[in-house]
Amino acid sequence: MIKKILNKIFNSENERTQKAKKNIIFSLGIKAVSVLTYLLLVPVTLNYLNATEYGIWLTLSSVLMWINTFDIGLGNGLRNKLSEAIANNNWKLGRSYVSTAFITIAIAMAIFYIIFLAINPLINWYSILNIEQATVPNLVQIINYSALFFCLTFIFKIIGNIYLALQLPAVNNLLVMLGQLFSLLFIYVISLVSNGSLLNIALIYSIAPCIIYVIAIIYTFKYKYKQLAPSVKLFQKEHVVNLFNLGGQFFILQIAGLVLFSTTNLIISNKFGPDKVTNYNIAYRYFSVVPMLFSIVLAPLWSATTDAYFKQDFVWIKNSLKKVNALLAITAVGLVIMVLLAKWIYKLWVGPEISINHTINIAMAIYTYVLVSSLSYSSLINGIGKLRVQVVNTLTVATVFLPLVFYLTDLYNVVGIILTLILVNLSGLILNIIQFYKIINHKAKGIWFK
Length: 450
Known about the structure:
Oligomer: single chain
Largest sheet: none
Number of helices: 17
Radius of gyration: 22 Å
Distance between the termini: 41 Å
Structural class: mainly alpha
Helix content: over 70%
Shape: globular
């Protein structure tokens, strides 16, 4: 049935469209396993840890994910620049970009981790997370180990950006899924032979994806794409500048996005306690299935749009948006159904012990729709490489986010966080729509074309 829908929506014989459709179909199977794994990780981890410990881990992992921004935007910069090089059939230039990105990110991560080790003992994590030291006596050790493997993973996961540039997002989805699947299997096995340990959870979640990316790098550069294998000799300083010119704007978007998305667990833990983080994240994970599935469509469209824009194929870009809008209409119906079924799905998924307010479900559904709608337009704009409007808007809303979220949480508790996310993402959606149509209709000037 899903295949028929995709065939109807993506019915063009255009080679670029057909490649995108094949990746979407392959990604559906991979993403189905990924979503199932993503959901099963909740009850399996909750079975190993209690709700408070699980809330602590969710908060810590969201903080550690901030490390993702320290590629300084080079991952997405590489994605666009490599796509352009391949579109021009210049694999030598592409290999030089790959080499430069790998080396630069490795240096950045090494510097970051050294600084992190120096300042981590000075941070009072117990006060920030609102927990007693007796609850997790080895917290600093857990954070040190987790940060190390997060840094290593971030260096290695650039292989995913390479496959995205090659318009093969299904491979990137496969790598992410295997990392989650390995985590699930390891946690299940360790739960059979040992008592709950936050350190074990931290190590498993951190090491599993690292192993997958290392294997992928070896296979890719030794067998599949030798012509892109990185080499120190191919490092070019001028490519760092080229990657920074575009990647720097992605970096600003990532930094501002931290304030908008990655601080929510920290705020909830600090204001309401770690157990409330668990409740919020169960609802968040339930509805985040939608953007996860939607990313299957958006991932190939980003790099395909880069190729189309480089070749001035505006008709293809317009047609792609029409197809995405058709999927957005289907998504709206799906979210309504998810809200209606939420109570029974939660009970089946995590048991009757955890109760989630219906208002949270409604707010989360609205936020999810605004998010995927905004991402649909921003993915096409990112492929075109005109990011200035997004940068200015994201920096603006990031500035008002914290005051607004504290104000609304005082009024509406946890629901206030979701309301804040809706408001700040709505401005992005409106501006993305305006900018896209200005660009595609050749009317973009000034900031709209930067």
